[in-house]
Fold this protein.
Amino acid sequence: MEADPSSSSNHAAQALGRHQEAVAVAAHALELARQAKYFGGQPDLDPPIQALVVQSTSLFELSPFEGTAAASRQILRHHPDGISHWFVLTRSLASPEQWAEALEAVNRWIELDSSPTAWSYKAKALLELGRYEDAGRAGEPMNSLRP
């Protein structure tokens, strides 16, 4: 099936010269976001937000995470309870220059989903910020949350 020639995904595909591949990758990224297999399902999203989900997911998969944080923040403005998007934002901010922001994101993530993964990112952020006692306390919940 041919892509709609007026769609922005088609324009991006044309720019790459790989029409079918680009459209298939975007559709796959959106389906993964909808399933959010690691975080429970995600609600149906408006088309502009769907585009941001594809962008965020694609940038996250490509690594490094340039651009991912901005797309994730836009998604979270519309869907603040999106656990998978808090994960992506936290992970994309996990760098030497951005540990304080990563800590803010992971704290919100933990409010929504107190998973061992979330707590491990919190402990890591606190360690990187030199807050060793707080990092030790952040590690304690992981012991009781083991699968």
User: Anything to note?
Assistant: Residues 1-6, 37-41 have pLDDT under 50 and may be disordered. The CA atoms of residues 73 and 131 lie 26 Å apart. The two ends are 43 Å apart (CA to CA).
